[in-house]
Write a structure and sequence with these properties.
- The protein is an alpha+beta fold.
- 22% of the residues lie in helices and 47% in strands.
Length: 135
Amino acid sequence: MQHWRKTTPDKQPRDFVHHWFKAFDQLPQDPAWFVQHADDALHLMTPDGTFRGTDGFRQWYQTLRLSFKPGIDHQLERIEVSHLEKNHYQVNLLVRIEAETLNSEATTIMAREVRRIAIDPQDNIKIFDYRVELV
């Protein structure tokens, strides 16, 4: 059971994002945990392009694995959660990313992220819109 499922609905999106980045920092070879949280109709816009659905998420994730070493450090500078309607939320993030490329170059990236998520009655979270913009 994921720890965000033990929290109140207003805290679930925030707890989920923290867990997501903690897992993402390791860049596991198998992205299954992340894919289970991507809606089949996911719309993902990043500096690397636009990706759709779970296959698109896998493609984007693979480009990151081909660019960065595991051990990334996502530092949440700001997180704001807005309730949109029923079980839908928008999560606005400002993230500082400390990473090392496969060429052993240290890099710092600032990104603004917007995620729209849905939480079902069993507290499963799906991301249906995910936008990343470099700042």
